[in-house]
Amino acid sequence: MSRLIVVSNRVNPPADPGLGSTGGLAMALAAALREYSGVWFGWSGETTEHFTGQIRMQRVGGVTIALVDLEEQDRLEYYNGYANKTLWPLFHYRTDLTSYERSFDEGYARVNRRFAETLVPLLEPDDLIWVHDYHLIPMARELRKLGVKNRIGFFLHIPWPARRLLTTLPKHRALVETLFDYDVIGFQTEDNREAFEDYVIHEAHGSVAGPGRLTAFDHTVQVDSFPIGIDAQGFIEAAKSDEATQQFDRMQTSLAGRRMVLGVDRLDYSKGLEERFLAYEQFLIDHPEQQEDVFLLQIATPSRDEVEAYQEIRHRLDGVAGRINGEFATVDWVPIRYVNRGYRRDQLAGIYRAADVALVTPLRDGMNLVAKEFVAAQDPEDPGVLILSRFAGAADQMTDAVLVNPFSREDMSDAIRRALAMPLTKRRMRWERLLEGVKRDDVNAWRDRFVAALRGPPPEAANGDKPEDGHQAVA
Ligand SMILES: O=P(O)(O)OC[C@H]1O[C@H](O[C@H]2O[C@H](CO)[C@@H](O)[C@H](O)[C@H]2O)[C@H](O)[C@@H](O)[C@@H]1O
Ligand SMILES: O=c1ccn([C@@H]2O[C@H](COP(=O)(O)OP(=O)(O)O)[C@@H](O)[C@H]2O)c(=O)[nH]1
């Protein structure tokens, strides 16, 4: 059987399946790779003075990982720069935060080339190569230049932006052209896939070559949506572990009979945390009788803290949380418990289970796995209610959540009221349907569907398609 070679910027498998690794991509890939023989290749997170291309192989949590160090300049121009100051804000519809510098562009191209050059000696002819996320869009082009003829797939974990937005990026066409060196391109949602198709047809003068096939730049690729899931069974078990139970008991004690509204996010401006705090304040104003009966626990794990926009949002959140607490707190009640640290997955499971309501209200999000983890961790006898932004990829699947517009304080305030008042029978009915979806569309289903597409059609079916696949001929 072919090996699966997974390539991503972040390689962060938990040594113990119960432990957390911040960010949904790392969590999902660790779970996905445990079932396949193969290698997970990417950046170690470390920098050295000069790039050596030396690989460190390790076996962690049942997964073989291959790590490479980058240079300090790479970290600044590729990770902090093009990935997180250019592509991330733009793809999350924040053109106001998007900065574009030529050095970022050069750093991005350099690291993609370095990744390809370092990976090639590890490859075997039968390997399936699966590249992940916006950090590595041009990776297939670099691999093809080095003569790699293996099947290569790409999965984008974040939203694909609307055509008019993407065209604000200098050299957008050149970036999209590099995607046509893949065999399969996957998006989180149908909406994202449609936005990509719209760009290809109207900006790249491409065409639809057949069901799920797009032609442009003399190449044809398979394009589809593959919504990512969680390791549902693993999470359900984690929620019953000793650590989760201890954390649950600790939360129950600290509730002191109050109801808990919960948020768990990386500290990122795309997660809508400021809007969430303000909507919760609106709820306190709209329902003074409930004030001391409820509190919001917001876990916001620091992220990408060398990027100014992240320093800025952290500063703003400190201010907003402080102001609301100063205004509404009483001697024995604080409306917002605001925590800037990361928790292990099993601890999180216990915290999710103790919550009455989860507020998952990003302004824009590729998927949002916290929404799915919250559902998986609930007590079947007394499940909590999920309030979910319609702008999270997860909203397409989780239609039994209370869907909200995260830009509207009134809408969110009303959703909190309805969620807290929801009778048990209704909570159970909605939760059961949500859980069914979380279990069915789990991380294994996601991986298996993508890998099946990456393997391609059986040889006899593929013959007819060969002439369109220009990249097959690249030496
Ligand atoms: O690696 P970091 O810079 O620390 O950031 C963490 C990850 O954030 C993003 O996650 C996305 O992937 C999730 C799983 O598909 C998805 O649910 C979420 O909506 C996305 O935001 C990023 O795309 C990853 O590359 C980062 O590793
Ligand atoms: O203290 C924390 C906060 C978050 N997470 C994990 O980080 C992931 C966040 O993924 P999501 O898709 O919601 O968003 P992302 O951060 O990838 O944009 C989830 O698996 C969380 O369990 C964690 O392990 N510890």
UniProtKB/TrEMBL annotation:
Region named Disordered: 455-475
Signal peptide: none
GO molecular-function term, one example from the UniProt record: alpha,alpha-trehalose-phosphate synthase (UDP-forming) activity
EC number in record: 2.4.1.15
Matching Pfam families: Glyco_transf_20
Catalytically driven reaction(s): D-glucose 6-phosphate + UDP-alpha-D-glucose = alpha,alpha-trehalose 6-phosphate + UDP + H(+)
Record-stated family: Belongs to the glycosyltransferase 20 family.
Entry function: Probably involved in the osmoprotection via the biosynthesis of trehalose. Catalyzes the transfer of glucose from UDP-alpha-D-glucose (UDP-Glc) to D-glucose 6-phosphate (Glc-6-P) to form trehalose-6-phosphate. Acts with retention of the anomeric configuration of the UDP-sugar donor.
This protein's name: Trehalose-6-phosphate synthase
